[in-house]
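Worked example

This section walks through a single chain of length 144. The input is the sequence exactly as stored; nothing has been trimmed or padded.
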Amino acid sequence: MSLKKLLEGKGYHRIKMKSTKTNHFELVAKINDIEGNFILDTGASSTCVGIDAIEHFDLLSEDSDIKAAGAGATNMLTQVSQKNRINIGSWSKKKMDLVLFDLKHVNEALVNHKAEKVQGIIGADILKKGKAVIDYKNKALYLK
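Given that input, the structure is written out below as C-alpha cells.
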C-alpha cells in the first residue's frame, strides 16, 4: 500500500509542495481566505508572516515579547496576530496565532539563490496540530 493511500485512509489531507533552489519546500496557504506563498520549516517553532504582508493578509497585530531568530539574524522584534484561520490545501485550523516579523533576511537569501520570495513560514506549531507527515520523495505534506 502506498503512503498516500494509507494516510488518506486515516483522514489526512495531501498538500503538494514544490522544491526551491535553496532546497526548501514551498507551498501555498491561505490566512483568513487570502492566499500566500510559504516555506515549510520544521525547525521554526511558530508559523510566521512577514511584517510587510500584514496588510496583504488583513491581519490585526499587537506587539509581542517574543524575540525571533533565524537565517543568520537574531533578536528581532516581533508582533503577534491572534485567532486567524489557516487553510493549507483542504486542511484548515481556526484560532491560530501567528508571529509577525521582518522576513527580509529570509527573502534575500531566497532571491540570492534564484528562488521566489515568500510571505511566511509554516512552522512546527501547525505541523504538530496537523499531525504532519512529510513525504520528501513525492514532495507532499500530509495534515490531519
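What to look for: The mean pLDDT is 91.
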